[in-house]
């Protein structure tokens, strides 16, 4: 090897080392960005309430629920890692329990499970952009709870059309005691299913009325569940 070739090889080695270092630096930067994203804290949304008179509380096994105010409304949130949540049964149950606890304190416009904002500025932008729709939705469900009705045949076998007509009549009877009602598509042995938006001060009377109707028609089973947050009467667009 000549001195010129040796010098050329020596000059090329730092360049090759630099080329090898570039992917390593890129990988390190990508790892750092992933670590930062994992460490970043977002705000998990439970729902929207009126701004006044709310006290911070802590759901079982979680961080304290906070409120982020925007004019006359407030978002109920808790700090959470900013990553896509796994919507398994445990997660959904915890969300449901937190929203139900909130509804017993105040009227709430419930958020669907899994809504997460990157931080307070992003949440405030959402509240401002959707303020009128959120205000109208909360006014519609204010001081009301959801009850769900399921009517089933009391005996085994394929139900006939007469039982289905009876179930529809029972729905009409109960509809007059609610602010709004939404029939559901039935499956299995259910003759009729529906959700009712009922004044929170009258929900016990609604259940008693349903029990009376069921007692008057032993050929069917009238099952009422709730009260629930008014999930079926609002649709929060995020």
Helical residue percent? 40-55%
Estimated share of beta-strand residues: 25-35%
Radius of gyration: 28 Å
Task: Write down the overall geometry.
Answer: elongated
The description of the largest β-sheet is: 5 strands, antiparallel
Number of helices: 6
Question: What does this entry show, briefly?
Answer:
The protein has 238 residues and is of the alpha+beta class. It contains six helices and nine strands; from the N terminus they run αβββαββααβαββαβ.
Relevant terms:
238 residues, alpha+beta, 5-stranded antiparallel β-sheet, 25% strand, elongated
Describe this structure in words.
- The chain has helices spanning 3-39, 89-105, 120-129, 131-141, 161-175, 203-216; strands at residues 41-50, 66-70, 73-81, 109-110, 116-117, 144-153, 180-184, 192-199, 220-228.
- The protein is elongated.
- The model has no long low-confidence stretch (mean pLDDT 84).
- The protein has 238 residues and is α+β, with helices and mostly antiparallel strands.
- The strands form two sheets. Strands 1, 2, 3, 4 and 5 form a five-stranded antiparallel β-sheet that branches. It has a four-stranded antiparallel β-sheet with strand order 7-8-6-9, covered by helices on one side.
- Strand 7 and strand 8 form a beta hairpin.
């Amino acid at each position: 090897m000549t001195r010129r070739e040796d010098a050329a090889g020596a000059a090329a080695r730092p360049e090759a080392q630099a080329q090898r270092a570039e992917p390593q630096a890129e990988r390190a930067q990508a790892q750092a960005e992933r670590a930062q994203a994992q460490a970043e804290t977002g705000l998990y949304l439970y729902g929207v309430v009126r701004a006044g008179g709310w006290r911070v509380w802590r759901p079982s096994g979680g961080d304290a629920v906070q409120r982020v105010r925007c004019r006359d409304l407030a978002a109920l949130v808790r700090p959470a890692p900013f990553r896509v949540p796994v919507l398994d049964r445990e997660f959904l149950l915890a969300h449901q329990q937190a929203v139900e606890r909130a509804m017993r304190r105040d009227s709430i416009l419930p958020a669907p499970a899994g809504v997460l904002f990157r931080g307070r500025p992003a949440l405030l932008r959402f509240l401002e952009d959707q303020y009128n729709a959120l205000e109208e939705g909360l006014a519609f469900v204010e001081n009301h709870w959801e009850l769900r009705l399921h009517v089933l045949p009391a005996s085994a076998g394929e139900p006939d059309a007469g039982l289905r007509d009876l179930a529809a009549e029972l729905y009409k009877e109960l509809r007059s005691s609610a602010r709004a009602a939404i029939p559901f598509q039935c499956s299995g042995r259910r003759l009729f299913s529906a959700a009712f938006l009922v004044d929170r001060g009258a929900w016990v009377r609604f259940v008693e009325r349903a029990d009376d109707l069921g007692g008057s028609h032993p050929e069917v089973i009238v099952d009422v569940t709730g009260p629930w947050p008014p999930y079926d009467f609002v649709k929060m667009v995020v």
